[in-house]
Amino acid sequence: MDAGGSGLGLGIVGCGQLGGAIAGALLRADVVAPGELWICNRSGPAGELAVHEGVHWTRDPQELAARCASVLLALPPAAGRLLRLEAPDRLVVSVMAGIDTGQLRAIGNSARVVRAISNPAAAIGLAYSPWFAPGGLSPPDRATVLRLFEACGTTDEVPAESQIDCFTALTGPVPGFVAYFAECMQAYAQGQGVEPDVAARGVRQLFLAAGRMMAASDTPPAGFVQEMVDYAGTTAAGLEAMRASPLSWLVAEGLEAARRRCLTIGAEPPAPDA
After folding, report:
1. pLDDT score of 172
2. What pTM did the predictor assign?
3. Cα–Cα distance between 174 and 120 in angstroms, integer?
4. What is the pLDDT of residues 60-106, one digit of tens each?
5. Domain boundaries in the chain?
6. Do you know which SUPFAM superfamilies this protein is assigned to (predicted)?
7. Annotated binding residues, as ranges?
8. CATH number listed for the domain at residues 176-265
9. Which residues of the chain have pLDDT under 50?
């Protein structure tokens, strides 16, 4: 896979939820042809990709690195930190949480490394995948990274590696944090006597509508909030109560806990069965 689409080959190491989602997105967007995609999975072909004609499978990550110009690492971080490849002339891109660029250089024996974060929403083209490259990238490498992550949704290059840790907390846990807020809203409705399936349907539709409206608008989230406050209706009463509560601080505490976990997860040994 290259910027011109001539097909130099992309290899994905790891075919779990995230690796599989990214592979599927790349194939659907025609960023890589099936015959140019290699997937390394220790248990062999897996998921929907297993029946995708033309995709190459291997259990040997070094074979993949030898055959592909670009390598995407999508392993669990504890397993990824132990991986070693001889890929000195390869572009090595990682979506492994907590694995920093120094570790990536050691993993791939390559100076051409990119640290990114994405999420399984790539499967439906809705992932946000920010990335960082120490020292910058050549124009062809940059084009490759952009094509890869634009196929998964939206993407930005960020100027500091620490921001990848921040986005790991903010955008990595799809739909975790948003789902928790929805869970709280559904529980409130049920506490008021609403049937669980009706409450769930209402809350799901609310979050679907809110997400689409914010995605389609240049208005920042704070602008939507202020519009509702200025309208001075029922929503304004709820928002004012939330603003007066410690909710904002508690959300920040949760995100900070996730960010701090990102700083340590890449240094932990794998589980015995990993």
Report:
1. 86
2. 0.89
3. 7
4. 999 999 999 999 999 999 999 999 999 999 999 999 999 999 999 99
5. 10-169, 176-265
6. 6-phosphogluconate dehydrogenase C-terminal domain-like, NAD(P)-binding Rossmann-fold domains
7. 74-77
8. 1.10.3730
9. 2-7, 274
pLDDT for 62:
97
Binding-site residue set for NADP(+):
74-77
Q: DSSP readout, the chain?
A: --TT-----EEEE--SHHHHHHHHHHHHTTSS-GGGEEEE-TT-S-TGGGG-TT-EEES-HHHHHHH-SEEEE-S-HHHHTT-----TTSEEEE--TT--HHHHHHHHT-S-EEEE---GGGGGT-EE--EE-TT---HHHHHHHHHHHHTTEE--B-S-THHHHHHHHHTSSTTHHHHHHHHHHHHHHHHTT--HHHHHHHHHHHHHHHHHHHHT-SS-HHHHHHHHHHHTSHHHHHHHHHHHTTHHHHHHHHHHHHHHHHHHHTTSPPPTT-
Q: Which CATH class is domain 10-169?
A: alpha beta
Rounded-to-integer distance, Cα 158 and Cα 138, Å: 16
- According to DSSP, the β-strands at 56-58 and 70-73 are unpaired
